[in-house]
Amino acid sequence: MVKFCRRSNNPLTSGVFGCILYPYLRFFQTRREAMKLVLCALVLLTPLLFAQAADWNLARVPAPDDPADLAGTGFVLFHRAGDYWIGSLPEGKAVPAGGMILSGYDIRAGELFRLLLARPGEADKLTDRVVLLYKDEDEAIFQATQAQLESLPPIQGQFVRLTTTPKPMGYHGGGMPPTDEFHPMVPQFVNQVSQTQYTQYVQTLQDFVTRNTRHANCDSAAAWILSQFQAFGLNASYDLFQLGTLTKRNVIGELPGLVYPDSLIFITAHYDATAGSPSIPEAVAPGADDNASGTACVLECARILSQYDFQKTIRFVAFAGEEQGLYGSEDYVANLQAAQAHVVGSFNFDMIAWSGNDPLPPDLVIYSDNNPRSQAMAAKIEEAILTFLPTALEPDIDISPGMTGSDHSPFWDAGWPAICGIEEQAWGPDFNPYYHTVNDVVANCDLVYAANCTRAAIAALSDWALPISATGPFLTVYSKVIDDLTGNQNGQPDPGETISLLVTLINAGSQGATGISGTLTTTDPHLSVTQSYSTYPNLASLATGAGVQAYILDVSPSCPQGATVNTTLNLTAAGGYQNSVPISFIVGDPLYDPMGPDAYGYYAFDVLDQNGPVYNWMEIDPMSGGAGALINYTSDDQTVQLNLPFAFRYYAQDYTQISVCTNGWIAMGSTTETDYSNSAIPNSDGPPAMIAPFWEDLSPHLMGRVSHHYDSTQHCFVVEFLGVRQYTPPSATESFEVILYDPAHHPTPTGDGKILFQYKRISDPASCTVGIEDPTESMGLQYLYNANYNVHAAPLDSGMAILFVTAAGYPEVVVDLTPLGTPIVIPVTGGTFNYTIGATNNETTTQNFQAWCDVSLPGGGTYGPTLGPVNASLPPGGSLTRTRVQTVPASAPAGSYTYHAYAGQYPNVVWSTDSFPFAKNVNGGGLMYEHWLNYEPNKVMGEAGQGLALPLEFSLSEAFPNPFNPVTALGFQLPASSRVSLRIYDTAGREVATLVNGWRDAGVHEVTFDASDLASGLYFCRMQADGFTAVRKLMLVK
User: Fold this and answer.
1) pTM over 0.70
2) Which residue range is the domain that position 537 belongs to?
3) Hey, which of 412, 707, 1018, 1026 has its CA 20 to 30 A from 947?
C-alpha cells in the first residue's frame, strides 16, 4: 500500500518529495542528514517532480445560493464570476451539478486569465496562441506566459488575471443598512463640481499620449496624479506592485477620518489605458473615456472633499495594471486583507464620458454583486441621482456579480462591498465605439454627462463617509460599553437579557458643546428601551465624554442569535444643536445556537448551546480501570467490525453492526474501507453512513488504545480512542469517544438514535473532520473540516461534547395542522379555506411556547405570519385545538402554495412544524377577497384569551410583490385597536400617497398601493401606530 502525504509548506515533507521521502526522513536525527537524502534524490526524482499532477483540479461551478452548499465538495474559491465560480476541487472529488473541470490547467503554463469579450468571436484570436481552457460567446479562460501575451493581436475585451489565493465565500459588512436622508452638507459638495476643472484633468491625462502600464509614460502620469493629491493636502503615496519584471505604481491619497479613522471608504479608478494591445508598451493609448474619465472623477472628488472633515477615512485611489488584468488593484486589496483592514465600501468608476444615443436622460449603470452592502451603495448612488440630478441622469442598478472586469472586482472577491459605475451595460448596443482604440480622445467624450456622473459620485461618497460640519459643535458616538445586567455576565447582549448601554460621545466639531443630553429610541421589534435619557459633560472640540447615566434595554427572548438590532441616539445641546446617531449592535452569538438541521433532520448541539450536552467522560479503557475490551489493531489503516447489542436507527435505517477504523471514524454496518485522508462532509470520499468524531490519519498500532463497551445500565454502546497518536505530527495524541444510545431507552420523535462525541484530550485538530454523514453520502453535518468550523460550532478542545440528535433536542411539543376539506383550490377572485391547528405537550413538565403560521408562495419566498405569533402554555400531556379560517386575496398569484404551522420561539426556533398544500387558479369566480386575513369561524377576529388569535406586537410586512408594476400589497398587524398612519414617500421625502389614516381594530390587515400615476423608482412606506414606527422600501419598475 502506498500512503500519500498531506500538503505541507515544508519542502522536505510536501509534494512528491514528501510522499516518497517522508517515511525515511522521520528516522534521521538532524536536518543535515535529511538534506543529504534529499540532494541525492534530486537527480532521480526531478523528472518525476515535473510530471507530478496537482492534487486539485481547476473547476468552474455554478454559484451557490448558499456557500454552505459547496462545503461538502472541498471547493476553494479563487474568483467570483457571476452565475459561476472558479476555484479548486480536490483530486477525485465529484464535480457539483452543472460544473466542469477546466482540463488542461497546468501551473507551469503561465498566469491564469479570464477575458470578458466585447463582441463574439474575439476569443478566436487566442486559438493556438495560449492554453485555452474554456470559451463561449461572452468570455474565455486561458493561461499564458508573458511572451504569449505579447504575441496576441488587439482584442476587444477586458483581461482579468485570476490568482489561486483562496477567497472568502461569504460577505463582510452584514445586511442592508437602514436608508437615511442625505447629510445637509452634501448639496454643497455636489454644487462645487466643476466641469471646467474636470475637463482639464481628462485632457492632461490624455496628453501623456500613452498610459499603457508597460510604458514609462504611465509612470509619469502617476507622478502627476501624486502631485495633485499632494496639492490637495492629502496623505499621498505610491503603492508599488509587480507586473512581471516591472515595478509599477498605484497612487493613493488619504483623508483621515476624525471619528472612525480605521473605517475605510474608497473611491477608485484605473488611470492606465490601452488601444487594444495591453501586453505590449503601446506608443499611443490616449484613453480619454477609458479611463481618464474615471480618474478625473476621483481627482475632482479629492479636490473638493479634501477641504472638509469626515467621520470615516476616505482613500482616493488611482490604479495601474487594470488593462493587463487588474494587477494593481489585486495586489492592493491583497495587502488590505493581510492588514485586516476595515473596508466599509469601494466606489469604482470606469468609463463615464460616453452618454450614448439612448433616449435622454442618459444612463449611469451601477454594477453590484449580491452583497447587501454593495446593493446599498448602488441604491445610494441611485438616490443621489434622483435627488440632485433627476433630469440629467437615469440610474440603472444592475445586480451582476459576473461583471468583474474592473477594479471593484478584487473587493468583491475579498467579500467587501463595492460597486462599479459605468456609462453603459458592458459592451451593450450603446457602448462607446472608440473603446480600446487610438480614437478614445476628449473630442469624442460628453464631458457634461461625465461631470454629472461625478456629481452623483461625490454625493454618495460624501454621505457614506459622514461629513462633519465646519462650524459649531458636531456630536457623535465615540464608543459604547454593554453590560448584561441580569444575564449570563458574558459582557454581550443575549436574547432575553436586560442590558445597560453606556455611550461615550466625541465632539468632532470646531466649537465646544454644552448642555448635552441624549435620548435613545428604537423601532426594532426585538428591543425595548426602559431607561432612555442621559446627560453628558460639556465637550470642547475633539474632546470625549461618557454619559452620566447608562441606557437600559430589554432584549426579546425571541431575538435570533447573531441578529443586528438598531437604535437611534437623539442628541441635543445648547444653542439648538441637534443630531441623530444610529447605534447598532449584535445580539448573542451563533455559537450558542445548534448546528443544523441537515436535509434529514439531524442537529448538532455542543456544550455552549441551550439544551446542549454536559461533558461527562465514560472511561471504558481496561488499562485505565474501565470495563471495556480492547480492539487489537496490528497495522496502520485497519477497520474491524463489531456487533451492537441493540438495533440502532441512523438516517431511518436500522443497524446491528458497526465498523471501527483506526483513522478516527465509525461506519454503520459492515465495511472494509480504511480511508485515512479526511474530506469534507457530505462527500463520496470515505465510507457510507459515517460517524466521524476525529477523522484523521491516526496510528493506534504505534501509540494509544481503542476499546469498546456496552453499558447495560445507561443503555449505550461506547467506542473510545485513548492517547492515539497522529501519523503526522507524531507528537500529537488524541483522546475521544463515541457513545451510541439505544433508541428503545432514549427515544426521539423520529426513532433515530442519539450520538454523543466526547473529547478528553485534543492536541492538534487542525486537519481533521468532525461530523456525521448519511448512507447515500449526500447529506450530513460538518462540524469541523481542516480548521474550518461551522458558524454554530464551538472550538474543539479538551472537555468538549457534541450531541447529534433529530428534532433539534427541543421540548417535544408537537403542532398539528389539518385542512378541513381537500383539495383546496382558490379561484382567481380569491377565497377562503378552513383548517384546525393544534398542539400537544409530550413532555413531563409544563411548556411555554409560541405558535404561528405562514405561507410559502409559488414564486419562492414566504408571506406572513398569517397567524400569530401567539403565546401558549400546556401542562404535561396537555393539548389545544382551534379551528381557523384563512383568506387568500385576489392579488395572490396563481400557483401552488404550502401552508405552515410552527411551535417554538418565534421566528427562528422551531420545535415542530406541520403543513398542507393548496392551490390558486388562474380562473373561476365568486366574492372578491382583498386581504390575507385569519380568524375564527363566525368572527372577524378572535378575542384576547381565546387561544391562537391576536398578534403579539405591531409589525409591517414586506410588500408583495416587490419590485412591482403598478400594484403591490402591504400587510400590517396590530395587537390592539390603534390609530394607524400608512403613507408612501419618494426619495426626496415628498408624500405621494396615503394608504391608511385612522383607527383600525386589533388584528391582521392588508392594503394595496396603486402606483399607476408614479414614475419608476425607489419609494418608502412608513407606518406609525401607538408609538410604533416601521419603514419598508418599495421598488416600482415599469
Assistant:
1) no
2) 475-588
3) 1026
